[in-house]
Amino acid sequence: MRILVVEDEPKVASFIRRALEEESYAVDVCADGPGGLDWAQTVNYDLIVLDLMLPGLPGVEVLKRARAAGVKTPVLILTARSEVDQRVKGLDAGADDYLTKPFAIEELLARARALLRRAGGAPTGILQVDDVVLNPVTREVTRGGQRLEFTTKEYALLEYLMRNAGRVLTRSMITEHVWDLDFDTFTNVIDVYISYLRNKIDKGRERSLIQTVRGSGYMMRADG
Amino acid sequence: MKATSIRVRLTLWYGSALALILVLFAVALYLVMSRALREQVDASLDEAAAVAIRTLGEHRFGPFLIFEDLSQDFPEIALLDKFFQIFGPAGQVTIQSANIQSREIPLSQTSFRASLDGKSTFESVKFEKGVPLRLLSVPIRQGDQLVNILRVGTSLQPTEKMLHRLLAGLYIASPVALLVSLVGGWFLAGRALRPVHAITQAAQRIAAGDWTQRIRTPHSNDEIGQLASTFNDMIGRLEVSFRQIRQFSADASHELRTPLTITKGETELALRRPRQAEDYRVVLESNLEEIDRMSRIVDELLFLSRADLGEIKLKMFPVQLDDLVREIQQQALVLGKERNIHTVLEAIEPVVVQGDDLRLRELLLNLVDNAVKYSQDGQTVELSLIVAGDRGKLVVRDHGIGIASGDQGRIFDRFYRTDEARAHAAKGTGLGLAICKWIVEVHHGSIEVQSAVHDGSCFTVFLPLAPSEGVV
Lengths: 224, 472
Prior knowledge:
The structure holds two protein chains of two kinds. Chain A is of the alpha/beta class.
C-alpha cells in the first residue's frame, strides 16, 4: 500500500511518515500544494493524506483539481481548523474522511486502514486466500490456523498480493504500491521478496498460492 | 410595560395641560361673553331712555303723556323688545307702555332715592315665575324739581338663552377637543418615538449576535437621528474589534495547535513500541523545541494583550541608541555564527532617544534576529543608525528571502507569516513584528519596510530624538 502525505510542517510530515512506515506502508511526503497535486496525478497511490493549509495551493484546491483530473484515490484531509465549514469544504471537494489536529496516531492509522479497506471492497478488512488469513488491524497472518511471522516489507507485499488476489500484478505495479520513491527499480528486490514469501507460505505445502506469470509478474490465487 | 411607556406619559402630560387650558379658556370666554352681552343690553336701554326723554320734552312733561302719542311719533318703540314706565314725582305709575300689560313692576326704593338725588340706576330683577328683567330708571327734572321718573326695561331672557347656549357648546366642545388632541398626541408621540423602537429592535438583534444589524437612520439631523447614527458608529466599531478578537483567537489557537500536533504525534509514535534510547532522545529534543515555541507564543500573546489593555508600564529615560545598536550587533554575530551570517555596522552616529531601554533592546533584537533568520547561509546583514532631522533613523538590511509586495502590508499583523517565511524558518511565532510595531508606536516613531523577493528586506525605524539637556 503506497500513501502520499502532503503536509508543509516538516515535523508533522515526518512523524506521520514514520507511523505509516511502521505499519509497512510505502510513504512519499510532499511539502507544498502544487507538488502534491503533481504527485497525486503521476503516481497511482492507494491513499492520500492531505493537509488543508498548504503553501502555493490550498489543500481544498489540490483536492478539487486532482478529482477533476480523474484521481480516484481515497483522500484523508488534515485540518488545523476545527471549524465545520473547512471540513465541509474539504469533504465537498472530494475528500473521503477528515482528522483535526492535534490527532491521535492510532486514529490516523485506523482511518487510513478504513479508507484502504473501503477502496479494496472488503468490508470486514480480513483478507483470505485459500487457507491464508490476513488481519490488517492486528497484522496477524495464519495459514491453516498456524501463525506466520513476516518482516514489514514482506507483510506489505503479501497484503498487496492478497488484496489483489486473482489478478496478475506486474513488477511495476508492485513497485508502485509497496515501495516508495526511493526504490531502485533495476534491482531484483521484488523477486527476492517473493522468494522470502514463498519460503514462509508455500514451502512444504501441497498447494502453492504465489504463482509466477511468465513475462508478466506474479499472482496469488486459491485454486493453484 | 405599556403603563409606564414614554408614549403614554407624553400623552397624559399633554392631555392634562390641554385640559387645564381648555377649562381656563371656557371660563374666561363665558365671563367676557356675559359681560359684553349685559353691556350691550345696558347700552340699548340707555339709548331708548334718551330717545324717550327727547320725545317727552317735545310733548311737555306732565301727567298727560299718552303712550299712544309716543308710539305714533316713534313707531319703532312699539316693535322694540322694551317697555316704558313713567312714574310721577312720588313714585306712582302714571303711564306705561302696552307691552307691560297688567303686570306690576313697582319702582324700587333704591331707584326712587337715587332719582331724588338726580341719578340714574340700573337694576336686574326677577319676579316670581316671570322672566328676568333689566331696568333703567332716569329722573326727569325741571330745574331742581323732580318731575317724572322714566323707566325703560327689557327682558334678559334672550341674553341668558345665548349664554346658556354658549355654556352648552363649551360643555360639549371641550371634551371633544380634548379627546381629539389626545388621540393626535398619542399618534404624534408614537411617530416621534418610532425610531427609538427601531433602535431597540436593532439592539436586540445585535445582542442576539447579528453584528451586521444597523438602524436605518431618518435623514434628519434631529435628536433621534443623532442617537441612531451614534449608535450605528458604536456598533460599527464594536463589530470591527469583535472581528479582530475572533480572528486573533482563531489565529492563536491555530498557531498553538501545530506544536501540539507535533508533540502529541511524536510522543504517541514513540510510545507505540519499545525503542532505542537514541530514538527517545530525538523525540524529547524535538518536543522541547516545540514546548519552547509554545511558551514563546504564549509569552508574546500575553505581552500583546497586556499592551492592548495599556498594562505595560514603560520607563522612559534618555537612551543612548548607538550603544544599544553596537551591543545588538555583537549578539547578532553570535546568532549568525552557525550559518556564517555576518552582521556589520555600516554607519553609526550618536543618537539619544527618550524611551524604555528594555523595549528598545527588544525591538532591535527582533529586527536583527529576523534579518539573520531570513538570510541565506553566508550572507551579511547591515545595520546603520544616523540622525535624520529631529529623528534617529535605524536601518536593518538583509539580502535573504525577501517579502512579496502583496504581503508587505500585512507582515506587521499579528500571526501573519508569509508562506516563504514558514517554509524558511519554522520556529517563528508570527508575533515579532507586531510587537516591534507596538514598541515603535509607543515611542512615537514609525517603522516601514522595503523588500523584494530573493533580494532581501530593509526595515527602517524612525524614532524622535530626545530633547537636548539644555532645553529640558
